[in-house]
Structures are given as C-alpha cells and as structure tokens.
Design brief:
With about 450 residues, this protein is mainly beta. About 35% of the residues are buried. Strands 2, 3, 5, 8, 10, 11 and 14 form a 7-stranded antiparallel sheet that branches. A 6-stranded mixed sheet has the order 16-15-20-21-28-24, with no helix packed on it. A hairpin with a 2-residue loop joins strand 15 and strand 16. The structure holds 2-acetamido-2-deoxy-beta-D-glucopyranose (8 copies). The site of one 2-acetamido-2-deoxy-beta-D-glucopyranose has 2 residues, from loops.
C-alpha cells in the first residue's frame, strides 16, 4: 500500500464495545422528540381473493432525510399472501411463483422487500405520489417531498376470511438504524373527493411507526464543531479523535494526507475515505463570531466536507443557540426556526439553496468541499453578551447526527479590557447587508 495512507481506528467502534446500552443521545433526540417515519397501509378495495392497498411512507423527522439510494421496505406475510401487481414501486425479488399456472404474480416472496421506482418510470407503472428514487425530504424542509406512496393488489388469501396485517416491518433508509413497531389497526384514513365536498373512507387502515437510533445504525460520529471569534485570535479546533483516531497500526479505515489524490475506487472498497486530520471527521461545522454591531451581531457558518468519496446532497445543519429567539437572516442558506420543545435555547435549521449550494461536494486533492453563509442575528439587549462564550452555539447537528462539540474550557475567551469590542457602526452593517442581498438575488 502507498506510504501516504495512514491507518485509523474507529473510536466509535471502540466505545461501542464498552457501552452496551443506549445512551440518551443515541436512542432519543430531545430536539425532535416526535420524529418518526410512519408507514400506512390503506385497504381501499376487496378483491376476489384479497385486497387492494395503498402504502404510504411518511417522513415526520424534522431534519433527517432519506438520501440516495433510497428507502427499502420489507415485511413478512401472516398467511400465504402474494402480490399480484404493484405500481409506484417494485418488489426486489419475485420469489417462487411456480405454483401459479395462468397469471404471473408480481411477487410470491414470504418476506418481500419493496423499493421505489425512479422519476423516469413508465406511466403504466406509476401511481400518485410515487417514484422519487426512494428519497424522502426532511419534514421541516419540504413536507411536499417527505412522503412516497405505492399501490399493490394482494391475493391468494384462499378461504381465510380474516385479513391480517403484515408482520415484522423493516425499513432501510437507506442504511440500517430504523426499528419499526407492530403494524396495527387504526382509525381508517379519510380522503376527500369531488373537490373536498365528499369524504371517502378506507375499508381498513394499518399503521406502523419506525424510529431511528444511531446506536442501532452503529453509526460512527460524522461531524464535529470548531469555533473562533473576532475578539480572540485563538481558534478552537474540533476535539481530537471526534470521529476516530489517526493511528499508525493496522486497523479499519483509511485517510489521505493533504495534497495526495484519492486512490482509484477499485484499489480499495468503496468505504468513505477522509483527509487525515486530528478529528478524522468526514464533516466539520465551523462557527465564527464575526462582528458585533449596535443592534445586531453576525456569525459565519461554514460546513466542510473532508470525505473524498461522498457528496452530501440536500444536506442540513441544525444549530441551537439562544440568539435564534430573535429574527435571524442567513444570506446564502435557506433557513427556518424549529419548535424548541421547552428548551430555553432556540433551534434554527439551515439547508442549501437549490442549484447553488444544496450539494456539499466531495473533497479532492486541492480542496475540501465547503458551503458557508453569514447569519445576521438581532440582539436581545437583555441577554446578549460576548462573555462566557455566550455567542457560541450550544449544539450542532449535521443531517440529523449530533456533532462533537469542543469542551467549554477550550472556547475562545474574551480578552481582559474590551476597548476593541465596541459595536461597529450601523451604516456599515447596512452596507454589508445590501451587498449580500445583491449577491443572493443575482444567483
Ligand atoms: C409520528 O409523528 C407524528 C408527527 O409528528 C406524530 O403525530 C405521531 O404521534 C408520531 N407517532 C409516534 C408513534 O410517535
Ligand atoms: C417452489 O414452490 C413449489 C410449490 O410450492 C415447490 O414444489 C418447489 O419445491 C418450490 N421450489 C423451490 C426452488 O423452492
Ligand atoms: C411496468 O409495467 C409493465 C407492464 O405492466 C411490467 O411488465 C413491468 O414489469 C413494469 N416495470 C416495473 C419496473 O414495475
Ligand atoms: C418476527 O420477528 C420476531 C422477533 O424478531 C420473530 O420471533 C418472529 O418469528 C418473526 N415472525 C415472522 C413471521 O417472521
Ligand atoms: C460529486 O458531485 C460532482 C459534481 O456533480 C461530481 O463530479 C463528483 O463525481 C461527485 N462525487 C462523488 C464522490 O460522487
Ligand atoms: C424576519 O425578517 C425578515 C426579513 O427582514 C422579515 O421578512 C420577516 O417578516 C421577519 N420575521 C419575523 C418573525 O419578524
Ligand atoms: C427555501 O425553502 C423553501 C421551502 O422548502 C422553498 O419554498 C424556497 O424556494 C427555498 N428558497 C430557496 C432560495 O431555495
Ligand atoms: C485576564 O485577567 C485574569 C484575572 O483577572 C488573569 O488571570 C488573566 O491572565 C488575564 N488574561 C489576559 C489575557 O490578560
């Protein structure tokens, strides 16, 4: 192997073996306590030997999306059901249909696995709200793209009058990490007809909710936070070994030294390969306190991709900071405030602007992938201070994963004597604001 590879050992794997139970942050996210993916089976029609069902997968996670290569939904039939036809999705295997002499079922698997069609699917294979290549947007970012539906005709129930819900639902989205509850009877889904003047009711509705746990996903930490301020030249870098440690000995992953190109994909398996750093994270979020104005203050937020093998499309970053209780303007990202569920510190969600910076590109020999924005925050004169690291974030998430924060005792300190901390003039602020508005509208 080339000398520029140094071996790393995943800190996560080491700590996983030590901690055998879920910690709070692994199993439950206090910033999105109701987050889940709900799978609904609506039976809309009985057939000669079964039923027709419409299945909807709805992502209720505020800031966790289902990325390329998309969701895969599986279950086990309670009886001898088969799927005669399917539209809007497909079963990945047909299974053993040899006992069907005249008609060919779509799938005879006891435990079928369903995948989404791509947007270029033929009209005869489509159904309403289908065919997004398995991608589901986060609920807070684009509710209209946060769900996906398909239809299937289920048969071969024989003389069994008791239609039973599928068992053991599984969801890959796209990797592991989701655990689905029982598929249970609920109130039938109501839909509207004749322009909303008539209500239709499903014959029967089954639901299951699936929740994510990074512990179940066996997910190594993916990101860390670094900090800097205008009032101190000290840069607080990401905690060492945030996502793994750089080590010389034989181990699991690889990293590439700066200035070297990524190896050919076939020379190693397609695992992630990152730039060698002390933190070894594929993604870092840098929070720089830029300016202190009379009525506002400004932060520069930069998200960097150290991964040579991965573009993060439709990335999102969540930041928890008390300053977001006031109106905040992000110049180059889209943003929204999220409910803070009783926390005193407000939560803001940022994501890229389409066709501009919603792809966080992979690193290469010459540079990291990066997206950044300036954020203008209004001052609340009762709480605003530069003391004690107040202006620094409390918590940062990238794509729903909690980022490793530096310890407070390493934060950049306010120097003694504050002569250089007088707020800048408002006119200057206004000029900067206008410049950025122009830049953004020109894009
Ligand atoms: C799933 O999320 C929806 C929307 O937030 C919520 O109404 C529902 O109660 C959640 N389901 C469970 C089982 O938590
Ligand atoms: C397929 O199913 C038929 C009928 O149920 C059975 O006889 C046959 O052994 C099965 N074939 C395989 C390869 O399992
Ligand atoms: C699309 O529909 C055609 C005809 O109904 C069928 O033969 C084909 O297998 C379907 N393709 C997919 C991907 O479901
Ligand atoms: C469903 O899962 C449970 C527990 O994992 C298992 O005991 C049971 O056999 C499974 N049922 C079917 C029909 O696969
Ligand atoms: C990332 O996207 C760029 C531009 O679309 C493309 O050239 C590059 O090959 C992609 N990288 C990976 C690792 O997919
Ligand atoms: C926040 O500021 C923007 C632009 O200055 C304005 O359009 C919006 O109405 C403000 N929102 C609130 C809640 O004050
Ligand atoms: C910001 O997000 C909203 C909601 O997804 C969308 O309607 C709007 O077009 C986005 N704005 C930009 C500039 O991308
Ligand atoms: C600031 O003052 C504290 C005590 O008042 C002192 O310990 C510290 O060294 C001073 N720091 C600087 C940078 O002068």
């Amino acid at each position: 192997m080339e000398p520029f590879f140094s071996r790393v050992r995943s800190l996560a794997l080491m700590s996983m073996s030590l901690i055998s139970v879920c910690t709070l942050s692994d199993c439950y996210d206090p910033l999105d306590p109701n987050g889940n993916i709900t799978v609904t089976f609506d039976i809309n029609q009985w057939t000669r030997d079964g039923y027709e069902a419409r299945v909807t997968i709805q992502n209720y996670y505020h800031y966790r999306h289902v990325d390329k290569s998309g969701w895969k939904l599986g279950w086990t039939w309670a009886n001898n059901e088969i799927i005669w036809t399917m539209s809007g999705a497909f079963a990945t295997t047909q299974g053993n249909c040899s006992s069907f002499k005249f008609d060919t079922p779509h799938s005879c698997e006891k435990s079928p696995v369903i995948a989404d069609l791509t947007p270029d699917a033929l009209p005869e294979n489509r159904t309403a709200d289908c065919c997004h290549g398995g991608i589901l947007a986060a609920w807070a970012i684009d509710p209209s793209m946060s769900f996906s539906s398909f239809e299937m005709m289920v048969g071969h129930l024989g003389a069994n009058p008791n239609v039973q819900a599928p068992l053991n639902l599984t969801l890959m989205a796209p990797g592991p990490g989701y655990t689905c509850g029982l598929v249970a009877d609920t109130d039938p889904t109501i839909s509207s007809d004749i322009g909303g003047r008539r209500q239709l009711q499903a014959y029967r509705t089954w639901k299951s909710t699936c929740t994510y746990s990074s512990f179940v996903a066996n997910q190594a930490p993916v990101c860390c936070v670094s900090l800097s301020t205008f009032y101190n030249s000290k840069i607080t870098s990401c905690p060492t070994c945030s996502c793994g440690c750089r080590e010389a000995e034989e181990s699991t992953g690889s990293c590439i030294r700066e200035g070297y190109p990524a190896p050919q994909s076939d020379s190693l398996d397609s695992d992630d390969i990152v730039l060698c750093t002390d933190h070894m994270c594929p993604v870092t979020v840098h929070w720089h306190v830029m300016k202190n104005y009379v009525t506002h203050w400004k932060v520069k937020l930069t998200v960097s991709n150290y991964n040579y093998r991965r573009n993060y499309s439709n990335w999102n970053v969540l930041a928890q900071h008390p300053g977001f209780s006031q109106n905040a303007t992000a110049f180059s990202f889209n943003s929204t405030m999220l409910p803070s569920f009783g926390f005193s510190d407000e939560v803001a969600l940022f994501w890229g602007i389409d066709y501009y910076n919603n792809d966080l590109l992979n690193a290469d020999k010459d540079q990291l992938g990066a997206v950044s924005t300036q954020i203008l925050l209004k001052k609340d004169s009762n709480s605003f201070t530069l003391k004690n690291g107040w202006a620094l974030p409390r918590r940062i998430y990238f794509n729903g994963e909690n980022c490793q924060m530096p310890l407070p005792d390493t934060f950049p300190m306010l120097p003694n004597g504050s002569s250089n901390l007088k707020p800048a003039h408002t006119l200057l602020l206004f000029l900067i604001y206008l410049t950025f508005k122009t830049v953004v509208t020109r894009l």
